[in-house]
Amino acid sequence: EAQVTQNPRYLITVTGKKLTVTxxxxxxxxxxxxxxxxxxxxxxxxxxxxxVEVTDKGDVPEGYKVSRKEKRNFPLIxxxxxxxxxxxYFCASIVQGVGTGTEAxxxxxxxxxxx
Amino acid sequence: xxxxxxDPGPLSVPEGAIVSLNCTYSNSAFQYFxxxxxxxxxxxxxLMYTYSSGNKEDGRFTAQVDKSSKYISLFxxxxxxxxxxxxxxxxxxxxxxxxxxxTELSVKP
Lengths: 115, 109
Hints:
Largest sheet of chain A: 7 strands, mixed
Oligomer: heterodimer
Structural class of chain B: mainly beta
Number of helices of chain A: 0
Radius of gyration of chain B: 13 Å
Strand content of chain B: over 45%
Helix content of chain A: under 10%
Number of helices of chain B: 0
Order of helices and strands of chain A: EEEEEEEEEEE
Radius of gyration of chain A: 14 Å
Order of helices and strands of chain B: EEEEEEEEEEE
Largest sheet of chain B: 6 strands, mixed
Shape of chain B: globular
Shape of chain A: globular
């Protein structure tokens, strides 16, 4: 079954304590992305990766890091979380079809609270 | 001006109603027009896509695009309680996906 798996689903942490949210996909997609979803703001792209060892900033990259050492995994790292990073995070594995547009397969989401 | 504008709702309708969800956009370079559906506590899933002006039907759902007015719509006929979800419009520009804010829909039995 095609899947994007994120962990953890829920996380409460304190300001400044480094954390990593893992993301793994089994569809062999080259393109992966991280989004945060906030009320009234919709889904905003944090970082994306078009291939192994290739990552780029999205619209809201401040305070986040990513790495892409292998095709299936794309972890999101918050080195010093702050309360304004409290949000719902989604990892997506994306396929760009010819004539069919771009389809994103999303993980279940990670609800992060920074206190 | 925001690149994409979508009425956040919430929108509440009785079962069987026709629902109209709308987005406006400002970027003429958008190539594909999509609708994603997001159930509570889940990630969004692609519902429909189209790349040209006009209508595209899929069962009870119709996606409509008007490129000249930079306006897209999703119509749901004979709405069901199972249609209760947040609907997000999405646009593709060179592989980058740009989402609307999402409209929360509730269909009451």
